[in-house]
From TrEMBL:
<dbReference type="Pfam" id="PF00563">
    <property type="entry name" value="EAL"/>
</dbReference>
<dbReference type="InterPro" id="IPR029787">
    <property type="entry name" value="Nucleotide_cyclase"/>
</dbReference>
<dbReference type="Pfam" id="PF00990">
    <property type="entry name" value="GGDEF"/>
</dbReference>
<feature type="transmembrane region" description="Helical">
    <location>
        <begin position="54"/>
        <end position="72"/>
    </location>
</feature>
<dbReference type="InterPro" id="IPR000160">
    <property type="entry name" value="GGDEF_dom"/>
</dbReference>
<dbReference type="InterPro" id="IPR050706">
    <property type="entry name" value="Cyclic-di-GMP_PDE-like"/>
</dbReference>
<dbReference type="GO" id="GO:0071111">
    <property type="term" value="F:cyclic-guanylate-specific phosphodiesterase activity"/>
</dbReference>
<keyword id="KW-0472">Membrane</keyword>
<keyword id="KW-0812">Transmembrane</keyword>
<feature type="transmembrane region" description="Helical">
    <location>
        <begin position="165"/>
        <end position="183"/>
    </location>
</feature>
<feature type="domain" description="EAL">
    <location>
        <begin position="385"/>
        <end position="630"/>
    </location>
</feature>
<feature type="transmembrane region" description="Helical">
    <location>
        <begin position="79"/>
        <end position="98"/>
    </location>
</feature>
<feature type="domain" description="GGDEF">
    <location>
        <begin position="242"/>
        <end position="376"/>
    </location>
</feature>
<feature type="transmembrane region" description="Helical">
    <location>
        <begin position="104"/>
        <end position="121"/>
    </location>
</feature>
<dbReference type="InterPro" id="IPR001633">
    <property type="entry name" value="EAL_dom"/>
</dbReference>
<dbReference type="InterPro" id="IPR035919">
    <property type="entry name" value="EAL_sf"/>
</dbReference>
<feature type="transmembrane region" description="Helical">
    <location>
        <begin position="128"/>
        <end position="145"/>
    </location>
</feature>
Length: 630
């Protein structure tokens, strides 16, 4: 039953595929019968023989019938067309048998129609129809046996033998079974191959669609990717878009979310952000949004102004979305935005993205939700930083830095009690580079540890010469960056190097800034305690500049407290600033710390300091940093 159903399905598919073939057959058969009809009229031209008007009418009528069926096409069902073919073939065969007996084309017509049955009909109906047609000669044989049909002697003795007619029927039955079996097998295999090819084509088409989607869309957010974005923008330009603003949005906090909740949760957040941006831009036909991968998105905005875009960025808040609330994420989503005008500031998409990235570096230094527009000076700054970075790598490798020393003075007796070592760097074609410029580059370039080692080692090598000039009791202060301070085995490296060079650790003071304590206070406590146990003093530098907290001073035992210049600039003119300074000095005294005032440049500052317990100062009023030995 299942096999029959499958065969019937195959036949339906085959009938659909062979419909055009049948229509071609109809037009070809119509032409052949028309030719046959015309051949019956040849006696008109040859003046020999008689015209067979019966066959002329039959052939011409069949030709007209086939052409009408061809013209009607799908308006006549396939079954009716096949029945017409059957009736026509029987009619021709009967006429052929009556006219010419076994010498005519009756058998050929029957064989032809039997083949047509197996090609155009379902398996069972085609076999039954073929068997039915095959008994037509047997019927003639019965009529001959009953002397109902008598053939003239000129047609041959065979026509008068019923056995010959029965034999023809048996031959047609055997032909029907064998041809039916072979045709059904071939047709089944052919249909299977056709179905397989169609399924393969569908799979290839589906794969192509998937590949196209991967080529044009970001697999995570389903937003257009950079390539699709570039194509869309080019289309906009081609149809007349003259100018636009392009924004780069960088989502901050995804790494924290990945660490807290896993990468899959972070991917869900990026997908939701993509949906928010898609919804935001779908309502604005002049805006296109795309994903650059990861946590970066790019927008193309036409028919707008800088002010309108800035207002929109301020109002745009990812955390207003119910799914992205800080309570649920465990972290507030923040974003940075950089912008550029196209085409006045960038003429193609590569240039746009490059300059947006430059502006994004500046945006990272700004407050959140702040849009930073690209400025040509930014590019010059980046180029200079890259140039300096390349020079710095060589300067660190070959120790091209020099050390300048600034004196620390006790204002009570004007004596020099210490020196602060400061790195100085000069580039041949650029001149002297300020530490405020090259130190951040060193930090960003992961060069701070080798740089710190070079400076430390150079200062240590100059300590004997400094002690000859300033006396054996002089103490040298060295600024240690947080990254270097937290470098593995920092204490072991310092003590080992001092011992190898026979330098008393008591000659050194390490100055560290408050930002080092944000996350590593327990580690810092251990490092400071170990340094002090080995005789090295530790100074808390830039107190009051950023992260000042009594908690640090409670946890960690320092030797010095350096008050930042910002506290001291107006102590002579502001009672409030003086009271703050006085309070800091009392606090330091109670904890047993020396206080040092840095950045002193005016005499009136000295007069105010003399009213406090802070008597050690450092600044241009007494001494500028000097390179002593190089």
């Amino acid at each position: 039953m299942i096999t029959d159903k499958r065969n019937y399905v195959y036949w339906l598919k085959f009938r659909k595929d062979t419909g055009p073939l049948l229509r071609r057959f109809l037009i070809a058969a119509s032409g052949l019968f028309l030719v046959a009809a015309c051949l019956h009229l040849t006696p008109l031209f040859t003046k020999k023989g008689e015209i067979d008007y019966i066959f002329f009418v039959v052939d011409f009528g069949i030709s007209i019938l086939f052409i009408i069926e061809y013209l009607l096409k799908n308006k006549i069902s396939l079954v009716i067309r096949v029945l017409t073919l059957i009736i026509t073939a029987i009619f021709i065969s009967v006429l052929s048998f009556l006219r010419s007996g076994l010498l005519g084309t009756g058998e050929i017509s029957l064989a032809f129609i039997i083949i047509s049955f197996f090609v155009f009909l379902p398996p069972i109906p085609s076999l039954l129809s073929a068997l039915f047609i095959s008994i037509l000669p047997a019927i003639f044989g019965f009529f001959v046996y009953q002397s109902i049909v008598i053939f003239p002697d000129e047609l041959g003795i065979r026509n008068q033998s019923p056995r010959e007619w029965y034999f023809k029927s048996v031959s047609l039955i055997i032909f029907s079974i064998l041809s039916g079996f072979l045709i059904q097998r071939l047709r089944a295999k052919l249909i299977k191959n056709i179905v397989y090819l169609k399924e393969s084509r569908a799979k290839i088409l589906k794969s192509k669609q998937h590949i196209d989607k991967l080529a044009f869309y970001d697999s995570l957010t389903q937003l257009p990717n950079r390539y699709s974005f570039e194509v869309s923008i080019q289309n906009r330009i081609d149809i007349g878009s003259k100018e636009a603003f392009v924004l780069l949005i960088n989502i901050k906090g995804i790494k924290v979310i990945n660490a807290l909740h896993g990468i899959s949760f972070g991917d869900q957040i990026l997908t939701l952000i993509g949906n928010i941006l898609k919804q935001y831009t779908s309502e604005r036909p002049n805006t296109i949004v795309a994903s650059l991968g990861g946590d970066e998105f790019i927008l193309w905005i036409e028919n707008s102004t800088r002010n309108r875009i800035e207002e929109a960025i301020v109002k745009f808040d990812l955390n207003n979305n119910q799914t992205l609330t800080p309570d649920r994420l465990g972290h507030r989503l923040q974003y940075r935005v950089s912008g550029i005008h196209f085409p006045s500031e960038a003429y193609n998409l590569d240039e746009v993205i490059r300059k947006l990235s430059i502006a994004m570096n500046v945006a990272r230094e700004k407050s959140m939700n702040h849009l930073v527009w690209f400025q040509p000076e930014m590019e010059k700054k980046i180029e200079r930083e890259q140039r300096l970075k390349n020079q710095l790598e060589k300067a660190i490798e070959f120790n091209h830095f020099k050390i300048a020393y600034q004196e620390k003075v006790d204002i009570s007796n004007q004596s020099i009690v210490g020196l602060e070592a400061l790195a100085r760097w000069t580039v041949a074609e650029l001149g002297e580079i300020s530490p405020d410029e090259f130190i951040p580059i060193i930090t960003k370039s992961d060069l701070i540890v080798p740089f710190g080692k070079k400076i430390f080692e150079k200062v240590v090598s100059q300590i004997p010469s400094l002690q000859k000039v300033y006396g054996q009791e002089i103490k040298i202060s060295i600024n240690i960056s947080p990254i270097f301070f937290l470098f593995p085995n920092f204490n072991d490296y310092i003590i080992t190097y001092l011992n190898q060079n026979s330098i008393n650790p008591k000659s050194l003071i390490f100055e560290i800034t408050e930002d080092i304590f944000i996350d590593e206070i327990e580690t810092i406590q251990s490092i400071v305690s170990n340094l002090r146990s080995n005789g090295i003093s530790v100074s808390l530098d830039d107190f009051g500049k950023g992260y000042s907290s009594l908690h640090y001073m409670q946890k960690i035992q320092f030797d010095e407290l350096k008050i930042d210049k910002s506290f001291l600039d107006e102590i002579a003119t502001s009672d409030r600033n003086f009271l703050l300074l006085e309070s800091i000095c009392h606090l330091a005294d109670s904890l047993g710390l020396k206080t040092i005032a840095e950045g002193i440049e005016r005499e009136e500052q000295i007069l105010s300091l003399k009213k406090t317990s802070c008597h050690i100062v450092q600044g241009y009023l007494y001494s500028k940093p000097k390179i002593l030995f190089e």
